[in-house]
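Why should sequence recovery work at all? Because a backbone constrains its sequence more than one might expect. Tight turns favour small or flexible residues, buried strands favour hydrophobic ones, and helices have their own preferences. The token representation captures these environments compactly. In the example below, the structure is given first.
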């Protein structure tokens, strides 16, 4: 299945969902999105890091420099309580949108 470009506005939701599973660094987040979507979605580095920075400025995530598993320094992102609330709100909005799209696309 070919990788799909992310629809505008979905990257924040995906990032919050992955970080709800636990702290992670940028490459790990990108890899997790690919894994969870069964290789169907790809978050490019060029969109991933600006989105993480934006979420951090909003208070949805926080970051800290830590040693990675291979003893290299990496910025690790963690979802905040505010981010968890936003995740649930965004998830409800997405589910409503997806239901509306299914209603339009299903044959009558």
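From this structural description, the recovered sequence reads:
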């Amino acid at each position: 299945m070919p990788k799909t470009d992310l629809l505008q506005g979905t990257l924040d939701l995906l990032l919050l969902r992955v970080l709800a599973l636990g702290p992670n660094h940028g490459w790990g987040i990108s890899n997790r999105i690919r894994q969870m979507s069964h290789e169907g979605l790809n978050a490019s580095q060029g969109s991933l890091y600006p989105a993480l920075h934006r979420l951090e400025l909003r208070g949805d995530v926080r970051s800290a420099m830590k040693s990675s598993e291979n003893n290299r320094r990496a910025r690790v992102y963690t979802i905040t309580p505010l981010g968890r609330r936003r995740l649930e709100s965004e998830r409800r909005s997405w589910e409503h949108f997806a239901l509306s799209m299914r209603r339009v696309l299903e044959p009558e």
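A few observations help interpret the result. The radius of gyration is 15 Å.
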